[in-house]
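[Discussion] Sanity-checking designs against the backbone

I'm trying to build intuition for which residues belong where. Below is a structure token string of 140 positions. I'd appreciate it if someone posts a full sequence so I can compare it with mine line by line.
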């Protein structure tokens, strides 16, 4: 498994910021990733030596919304990583390089806007080219 597929993003909560003082970092990981995959991914991305990896599975939960409708929170996994010695990670600068994976991490509204912008760009260039060729044909 690719290292950028293994680690999705760092977990940023009050608990995880307090754990950083103890050299323990938390990341959202791919549900199919193992401890060995996580260890290799941290080594590849940050270049740090990992002492221990603990994985926590979060279960699907139903959340009540307005007027009797429900929303399901999806299954996900977190990895708590402790480093050897007093090594530090700068997990705030972790970002995926692929633009498609960035779109997946965005909120649903932003995802729709990004997809709309991407679909509009080629359409405008095609229509502009079509207008140029039609005006050139009329001039002949």
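Best answer:
Here's mine. Compare freely.
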């Amino acid at each position: 498994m690719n290292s950028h597929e293994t680690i999705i993003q760092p977990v940023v909560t009050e608990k995880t910021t307090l754990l950083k003082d103890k050299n323990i970092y938390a990341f959202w990981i791919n549900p199919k990733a193992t401890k060995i995959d996580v260890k290799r991914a941290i080594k590849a991305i940050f270049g740090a030596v990992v002492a221990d990896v603990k994985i926590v599975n979060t279960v699907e939960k139903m959340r009540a919304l307005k007027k009797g409708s429900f929303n399901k929170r999806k299954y996900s996994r977190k990895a708590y990583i402790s480093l050897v010695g007093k090594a530090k990670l700068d997990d705030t600068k972790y970002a995926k390089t692929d633009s498609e994976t960035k779109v997946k991490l965005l909120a649903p509204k932003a995802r729709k806007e990004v997809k709309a912008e991407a679909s509009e760009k080629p359409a405008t260039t095609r229509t502009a080219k079509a207008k140029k060729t039609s005006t050139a044909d009329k001039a002949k």
